[in-house]
Design brief:
The protein is α+β, with helices and mostly antiparallel strands. The chain has 20 helices and twelve strands.
Length: 484
């Protein structure tokens, strides 16, 4: 059966009768009536959403976005009417207005929820409407991309925006990539490329690299590489990223890029000799093209991450040790190796056991202590190794702290010293129009990035984040949740 009930409730809200009935309707777990609408719906939606944004009533806007999702999920014959009437350009306009509120201060819960609503609505449209999906690639994707590239916006919001962006791009037919790249698309890609330099998290760098590759054909990737990255070796590494070998090719590209940044890098990567979760050895993912077992130290997200082999499937398992979840760390050195031990504040269930300790072995050349202090802070360093971090006497010798305060000299494995300057302009269309290339920073300049927490879930429960990762940085679930 078909019903105009939801449209009627939206029109009532437009005439000042409130949103309570809409909220009650959306909370009904079972409703067998498919919702129908006519050409009046978008007119009322547009006026009502702009009216609520004028009043900063983000909760009401979230409800209206859920209504749009409902109309698309009911999959009636009228599903294309909203698209034909111009829903996507209007949604891009609403989204652009909402992004503006993110730059004026700390995001409120209701503001974060409406951002989630836009992400989820875009995902639903991309899954339910072919024409809608193609239209999302224009104005809406442009706004979404600049949200992802804007360093002034909360890290978690940018992270979920990137997942949404890659989910939309994942569904784009290959033929769309072959089309000529517009000027606006090129500006957006420059902004995403610049964000790779200072985001301070390897996983985020992978997601940005994936978005860039999904936005262009292989030929365009080769043609634009030197416009996105000035350094020839970096540009060549980017050109060599292949879809079928994305994980390993992007690893080579990002390792070289981060090494090129020298002391200004915000991601340090070292190969490890071995890794253990509470004494049980874990191994690098089984991939012939993955040369070493890489451990990433992420200064921007204050975390250590690495990938391990999943013996039960093709997906890689990921381990993320967040500063909020770490009680302390110690470092022992022998004649042959350095042993980093990270103690968790509370156990995490993994491999059918509770994990409280992660141990990673490195060779003697790796600068592990200073790098760990940059990630976790000197206060987490446990000088004088004991098994129980609760009983540890925290000693931090003055020479270690003084050494930490000094700028660390780090080897670069691939490149000579680079003397280009960082582009300091904001992630805006006007700023990007003045740039022809993304420049790598001088080694004596400080990187600028947001030191916001990377995982709300781990911060909430205080545990290490251990999960399963597919080969792409996408968001498969139809709902996005950002917990601040």
């Amino acid at each position: 059966m078909l019903s105009f009930q939801l449209q009627s409730l939206i029109i009532d809200a437009f005439h000042g009768h409130g949103f309570e009935k809409i909220e009650e309707y959306l909370q009904q777990k079972e409703n067998s009536l498919y919702q129908k609408y006519n050409q009046l719906l978008l007119i009322h939606l547009n006026r009502l959403i702009n009216k609520e944004l004028d009043k900063n009533e983000f909760r009401c806007v979230s409800l209206l976005l859920k209504c749009i999702q409902r109309f698309f999920m009911d999959d009636t014959k009228d599903e294309q009417l909203l698209i034909q009437q111009g829903l996507i350009p209007k949604m891009a306009s609403w989204f652009e207005r909402t992004i503006g509120f993110l730059t004026t201060g700390e995001p409120t819960v209701s503001l974060v929820q409406v951002i989630e609503g836009f992400f989820n609505t875009a995902l639903v449209i991309s899954q339910r409407s072919h024409k809608g999906k193609n239209q999302l690639l224009d104005s809406f994707l442009f706004n979404l991309g600049f949200l992802v590239a804007d360093k002034t916006i909360n890290y978690l919001i940018r992270q979920e925006g990137l997942r949404t962006m890659n989910s939309i791009l994942e569904k784009v037919p290959r033929g769309e990539r072959e089309k000529p790249i517009s000027e606006n698309r090129c500006f957006l890609m420059k902004g995403l490329a610049r964000a790779i330099l200072d985001i301070g998290d390897y996983d985020f760098q992978v997601g940005l690299s994936e978005a860039l590759c999904r936005m262009m054909s292989k030929k365009s990737q080769a043609d634009l590489a030197h416009r996105l990255f000035e350094d020839d070796i970096i540009a060549v590494a980017f050109k060599e990223i292949r879809d079928r070998e994305f994980e390993t090719d992007s690893r080579r590209f990002l390792n070289c890029l981060n090494d090129k940044l020298g002391d200004q890098r915000s991601v340090y990567t070292f190969p490890c000799i071995a890794a253990f979760l509470d004494g049980d050895e874990v191994r690098k993912p089984h991939d012939d093209n993955l040369e070493k077992f890489w451990i990433d130290f992420n200064i921007g997200s204050h975390s250590i991450t690495f990938y391990i082999d999943n013996t039960e499937g093709d997906l890689w398992d990921s381990v993320r040790l967040l500063k909020e979840a770490v009680g302390g760390f110690s470092l022992k050195e022998s004649e042959k190796k350095k042993v980093l031990v990270v103690y968790l504040k509370k156990p995490n269930f993994f491999y059918n056991k509770d994990v409280m300790k992660v141990e990673i072995h490195f060779d003697l050349q790796s600068s592990i202590l200073k790098t760990c202090m940059k990630v976790f802070g000197p206060e987490k360093y446990m000088f004088g190794f004991q098994l129980n971090p609760d009983q540890i006497k925290r000693e931090e010798p003055s020479e270690i702290l003084e050494s930490f305060k000094e700028q660390e000299t780090t080897e670069t494995h691939c490149y000579p010293e680079d003397k280009a300057e960082v582009a300091s302009k904001q992630n805006s269309l006007d700023g990007l129009k003045e740039m022809d290339k993304i420049l790598l920073p001088k080694l004596n300049e400080k990187p600028s990035y947001s030191n916001l927490p990377v995982s709300a879930r781990a911060a909430q429960d205080g545990s290490v984040e251990i999960g399963e990762r597919s080969s792409k940085y996408t968001s498969e679930p139809s709902q996005v949740y950002i917990l601040l």
